[in-house]
Design a protein that fits this description.
mainly alpha, 5 helices, 87% helix
Amino acid sequence: MEHDASLQASRKKPPPGKAIVVALLGLHGLFLISIGLIAFFGGFVGVYDVSHGHTTPSALVAVLGAALAWIFLLGGIVSFLCAQGLLTWQRWALWLTIGLEITNLMAGGCALKLQLFAPWTSIVSMSIAGGILLYVLIAISIRMLSN
């Protein structure tokens, strides 16, 4: 009986750093939305050049950046949803966070390889995504899946 009470108490106690991960997800969402908006509106320059017959490599990269911006914008919105879901212990938020952070790592790698932004923005975004992914996989997933 005493063992059951201690087991229930340990399940109710949030893992250390859960609030930090939720805050990082929210901040990462803001960061992704701002990068996505900058890339989206910067892509209009490339679209204008391509539509007027000036098909240069930089114009094509700007068009590709505008397309990649949608991934960042949607990732930022989904990041806010994941933060809210993890805060209320929703199981869907765990899987959505894992998928989102893997997508963010891949999109950041593409942006870094194509040199669409300053390198530090992609590196910061990928570092935050990697940290969130590791913490979610190590600490939160064990607790959430055990319930």
